What we know:
Blueprint: H1 3-15, E1 38-43, E2 59-65, E3 77-82, E4 91-95, E5 103-104, E6 114-115, E7 119-120, E8 125-132, E9 137-143, E10 148-154, E11 161-168, E12 178-189, E13 194-203, E14 210-216, E15 222-224, E16 240-248, E17 251-258, E18 266-270, E19 279-285, E20 297-305, E21 308-315, E22 322-328
Antiparallel strand pairs: 1-22, 2-3, 3-4, 4-5, 6-7, 8-9, 9-10, 10-11, 12-13, 13-14, 14-15, 16-17, 17-18, 18-19, 20-21, 21-22
Amino acid sequence: xxxxxxxxxxxxxxxxxxxxxxxxxxxxxxxxxxxxxxxxxxxxxxxxxxxxxxxxxxxxxxxxxxxxxxxxxxxxxxxxxxxxxxxxxxxxxxxxxxxxxxxxxxxxxxxxxxxxxxxxxxxxxxxxxxxxxxxxxxxxxxxxxxxxxxxxxxxxxxxxxxxxxxxxxxxxxxxxxxxxxxxxxxxxxxxxxxxxxxxxxxxxxxxxxxxxxxxxxxxxxxxxxxxxxxxxxxxxxxxxxxxxxxxxxxxxxxxxxxxxxxxxxxxxxxxxxxxxxxxxxxxxxxxxxxxxxxxxxxxxxxxxxxxxxxxxxxxxxxxxxxxxxxxxx
Length: 329
């Protein structure tokens, strides 16, 4: 097969949700060998003491290192998070260790639900920040409304310049009502001419949330599969959301969470380096029955410090969440 034929075949398969390459789902089991067991360490901060906390609930942490990237940074690590309910607002906290505690940036939110002349919406939320090496910038992907994911860019990780809409419900099949909770990762897909992948939540007229994906050469301009990457019925859930891409064992996986009625756990699916597998591997991380998880953990973001791995996650029932830190043991 020529490279052009291979690229075309992969594009068609992507548009069909890669069904042509799918393998049967595996029985639920422990996460694959090589992944750590994360244990709750602490909450990142006391949310009741925050200066900016309009709704009492926080979601979707994203942890990023600043060393070698941001001059005169407030700390070695920046933690982005947001309320979900209106008005939302993209927030920042900082620390010199992944173990925290994190200090609230005093001028939160750094991005609000009104940004003239670009938009005026009920809320903005789900911040995901990626270090974009070609431009030496922090790129912020965030949603508002739930139909639209936007991009803003910054040299210091605090003051952002609006760029563009990168994903909207109109880019997916008719009936799509939500395209949000997007995360973007460097990941090479040579056959698609891509250097980045995006994973995100889709909702539609069935009101069952699935995981979608797309690919991009530059992180700004995207193509999207027109069928879900992972469907909730494949993993015994009603709704799945909050996906994140992780690499291990020479392969690529997607970690995501399921609705609390299905256990409130984070699940894991191996998609392979070409995103051509569908090996559902069961529970990646189970929530604590008591505080702060109270039976639900979600929206993982990962970091490593001095060889120790950490996971930041949304802990607690939906719209009651806190930002928690877990450490690998």
